[in-house]
């Protein structure tokens, strides 16, 4: 674990969490995220690799993929 717990816990973990929250807020404020049309989602299948990862059907060599449409907010 990166930040762990106990006596030797990272003293910067709270700062890292706050930084991630600030980055997420900035992204969510400026961009709109939405899933793709249902036709594109039909190509995605859940593959068990210790964890469940998304992959396109028949395109194993391209690696894990999960389509996401990103638009600029006006």
Automatic annotation (TrEMBL):
Alphabetized InterPro entries for the sequence: Cyt_P450, Cyt_P450_CS, Cyt_P450_sf
Molecular function in Gene Ontology: heme binding; iron ion binding; monooxygenase activity; oxidoreductase activity, acting on paired donors, with incorporation or reduction of molecular oxygen
Record key words, sorted: Heme, Iron, Metal-binding, Monooxygenase, Oxidoreductase
UniProt superkingdom: Eukaryota
Family matches, as Pfam families: p450 (PF00067)
Entry similarity comment: Belongs to the cytochrome P450 family.
Protein name: Cytochrome P450
């Amino acid at each position: 674990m990166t930040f762990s717990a106990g006596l030797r816990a990272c003293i910067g973990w709270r700062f890292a969490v706050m930084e991630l929250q600030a980055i997420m807020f900035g992204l969510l404020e400026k961009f709109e995220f939405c899933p793709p049309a249902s036709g594109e989602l039909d190509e995605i299948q859940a593959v068990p690799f210790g964890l469940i990862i998304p992959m396109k059907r028949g395109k194993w060599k391209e690696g894990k993929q999960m389509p996401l449409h990103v638009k600029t907010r006006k």
